[in-house]
Each structure stands twice: as structure tokens, then as C-alpha cells.
Amino acid sequence: MKLWNRLPVILQAVIAGALVNLFGTLPWSVLYGANLALSPSIPWAVAVMTVYLWFFWRYLQGNGWPPSTAETRRRNLRARALSGRVWSLSLLAGSLAIASLFTLYLVYERLIALPQQPFPEVSAYPFLTVFLMLLMASIVAGVVEEAAFRGYMQTPIEQRHGPAMAILVVVTIFALAHLTKPSVTLALLPLYFTAAAIYGVLAYLTKSILPGIVLHALQDAYLYFMAWWKGPRATPQLVWETGIDGAFWRSCLILLMFLVATVWTYRKVAATMRNASATA
């Protein structure tokens, strides 16, 4: 413990967040792999993971041993309850930000050749098994990654070094962590930086990871189910080959509109939180 306390806060936060991410995602990787290998007709891994995730969340909230770390765990998780108005504004702001991210991808893929994101071959498995496992994968990603990165990693750095440094560190670690996936290349890093910034700023403004969990899970669910339903997208031609056409200009215009709306709603979230603090 003495050695731990001597470490810089940033290093402590990065290690803590990485451990939360590891212990939150590794069990699901083992469970769904075993389920598909042993009895794919019965999606028992979903039920087991639901129970594990419930205990995991309670531990991060400060329950369990050791009691000496309970308050620190609760504070770093930052799962603060929010008013209905803050919830609605946060979900609107985050949804517009995610729409901006998706539109940015449409623009970006016309500028740089991006790798195809492969989807596992699942046609041999029952529909219900695939559906429930994709749904659970989305929930695990939302809960665990927000708790790890925007909770346990970002919160301590915010408290010591301020939000700008905290978000910069977490955005960098979040993007680099996704490089471990075979389909993720350096060309995709700007998109992961942007996604992490969306959730990082939202967590800072609301002082809670709860809106980020909902939005993150919904975003991943949309991507997973669209990839399952439609399969790989056709690779678009680069503007350097076709010239700047109408479709590219439309994507740029839509992106600009979403960005303006995102900035406006994020500012509304910030103002609402300030007013709530002033009247508390």
C-alpha cells in the first residue's frame, strides 16, 4: 500500500482503470467462447454474465471487502443519480455527439482507406443465441468501459489535475487499448479518440457515468446488430479518385449541423448542472 501511494495519481488511475476493464471483460470473453463451443443452442453464458456483472457493479460501488476502500471505490466509479432534466439533456447531447461521430466516419472513409471491420461468422448458431450474446456484449462494453475509463481512470485525474488533463489521458489510453484488436489500425485512432472524448466530456459535465453507460451500450448494440443484419459495407471510393462529389459535400454539411447541435446541447447540460449546484 505504501508503494501504491507513492505512485503518481495518473499512473494509479491508469492501473486501476485497466484492472477494472480486465476483470469486467475477461469473464465474458471466456463465457461466450465456452458457450458457443459446448452448447450453442442454450445461451447460458448470458445468464451467468448477468449475475457476475451485478456483483461486479456492486463491488465497484463500494460493497464488499475491504471496507477500507469502499468510499474510494464508490467515489471513483462516479455512478451519481441524476435529475430527469439532466438525464434527458445528457441523452440528447450524447446522441447528437454519436450521430456526429457516425457522420465523421462517412467523411473520413472518403479521405483515407479504412480497413473493413470483420464480423464473426455466426450463421451456424441459433438466432436467439446470437441475439442475446450481441445484446450482452453491448451491455458489458457500456458498463465496464465507462466504469473503467470514465470512472476509475478519469475521476482521480480530474480531481488532481483537472478535466482537460484527465480527458486527454483517458482518450489516449482508450484509443491505444483498442489497437489490441486485429482489425483496428492507426488510421482508426482519430475515431476512437473522438468517441472517448464524447463520453469523457459528458461524464465530467454530469459528474456521472450513467448517461455514458446507456449511450455506449446503445451505440455498440446498433453497430453489432447492423453488422449482423447487413454484413460488411461496400468500400467507398476516395475523393482523391472520384473528385469531391455531392455525396461528400452532403456528409460534410450534415456533420457540421450535428456538431453545432452537439456543442449547443453539451453547453445546455453544463448550464443545467451549474444551476443545480447553485440552488442546492
Q: Secondary structure elements and their pairing?
A:
Layout lengths: L1 H5 L2 H30 L5 H17 L9 H8 L6 H28 L15 H35 L1 H15 L11 H18 L3 H21 L8 H4 L3 H34 L1
Helix pairs in contact: 2-3, 2-6, 3-6, 4-6, 5-8, 5-9, 5-11, 6-7, 6-8, 6-9, 7-8, 8-9
Question: How is this structure best summarized?
Answer:
The chain is built from eleven helices and no strands.
Average of the residue pLDDT scores: 94
Q: Could you say how many structural domains there are in total?
A: 1
How much of the polypeptide forms β-strand, as a percent range?
under 5%
Helix- and strand-based class? Answer: mainly alpha
**Radius of gyration, rounded?**
20 Å
- Percent helix: over 70%
Number of helices: 11
- The SSE string, one letter per element, is HHHHHHHHHHH
Number of strands: 0
Amino- and carboxy-terminal Cα gap: 37 Å
The largest sheet, given as strand count, sense and whether it forms a barrel, is: none
